[in-house]
Each structure stands twice: as C-alpha cells, then as structure tokens.
Amino acid sequence: MNRISQSPASTGGARPRDADELIEALDATGSPRPIGKLEAHERSIRHRAISVFVFRRGELLLQQRSATKYHSPNLWANTCCSHPRWGEDVEACAARRLREEMGFSLPLTPFGIVEYQAQVGHLYEHEVVHRFHGIVTGSGPDLMPDPDEVQDAAWMSLSDIAADIRDRPGRYAPWFVIYMREHIDVLRMLAHAS
C-alpha cells in the first residue's frame, strides 16, 4: 500500500458546512427536485451521486474520509464520491470534486450508473450513482488532498483491497464495499487497462 497521510482533524460536533447544500433528489420516474444534502441522507430520499475511480499501473487510488465528515468519517472509499449540486452536470461534478478533494485533475470517462441503498449509522444512502474512471500515467500527479475532506490516501491493488474488505469490512464505506462485491469485474477491467 502506497500511502499519503494527512493529520486527522477534530469533528467539533458542529453542523456540517454543506448540510443544506441543494442536491438533486429523484422520484420513481427519475424526475428531479432540489433537496438539502443532509435531509436526503436523514430521510433516505433517492438522489443523484457521483463516484470517481482513478487507476495507476493496476492500482486504485483510495481515500480515507476525514474525521470531520458527518457521513462515514474515517472510512476508506474509492478516489472520491459526492453529489452534484442542484442544476450541476454529473461530469462537471466529478471533475470538480476530484480537484477539490484530491488536489489534481485528469480526464474522466463515465462507466455506468448504479443504484444502491444502505444504512450508515443514523443516515441512509439511497443513491443513483454516476461512475467515472481516470487513468494516471507515469508516476502521476502530486496528490494534495484537502484535509477537510481526506485524512489519508493510498494506492492499492484490487486483490489487496478485496482481501482487506474480507478481513476488516468495517474500515470501508458501505458504497465501496458494494462496488467491490457487486461490480468487481468492471473494476478489474479498468485496473487492467491502466
């Protein structure tokens, strides 16, 4: 595991700074309406999300979510995950959040949409996720994770990730466990292409 460490931050117990940010809720027919991000997670409202997977020489760049995150703090997940702001294009959101969370940009390619539900403590995931991947060439960009978002980062092979999830599933965000269990074949194909 190649790691890039950040010092953990204190949670402070404050209301999340982006709790009221408007994201896109989706009804059963896919029609959108605005909703606050925290409300969507508290009430299990179906909503749009993005997940980015960046590969380098067969390894996936993981992030350990900041201790200050209101949702799934300290857990490991794929390169970055977020929600498009109300009215924001999913591709623009994926590029923006990769830059904001991990501190670099690269071309991203969509590779499908998945929907899942999971309970995480007192919050609920009911996500319609647009997935994107990118490939880093050479040694790749210098990672400069935002410590408010990311406390650590690591490059890992999918086989090492799968073994660690088997042994210690509680270290990983529930959506990432779902991706690794239900979508491993497409992730392997993307890793092999890197």
Automatic annotation (TrEMBL):
Sorted alphabetically, which InterPro entries does this protein's record hold?
IsopentenylPP_isomerase_typ1, NUDIX_hydrolase-like_dom_sf, NUDIX_hydrolase_dom
Naming one, the record's GO cellular component terms include: cytoplasm
Q: Which residues form the Nudix hydrolase domain?
A: 45-178
EC primary class: isomerase
Which lineage ranks, top first, belong to the organism behind this chain?
Answer: Bacteria, Pseudomonadati, Pseudomonadota, Alphaproteobacteria, Hyphomicrobiales
- Single GO molecular function: isopentenyl-diphosphate delta-isomerase activity
Question: Which segments of the protein form a coiled coil according to its record?
Answer: none
The annotated pathway is: Isoprenoid biosynthesis; dimethylallyl diphosphate biosynthesis; dimethylallyl diphosphate from isopentenyl diphosphate: step 1/1
Q: Which UniProt keywords apply?
A: Isomerase, Isoprene biosynthesis
Known EC number: 5.3.3.2
The similarity comment for this entry is: Belongs to the IPP isomerase type 1 family.
Which terms under GO biological process does the entry name? dimethylallyl diphosphate biosynthetic process; isopentenyl diphosphate biosynthetic process
This protein is called isopentenyl-diphosphate Delta-isomerase
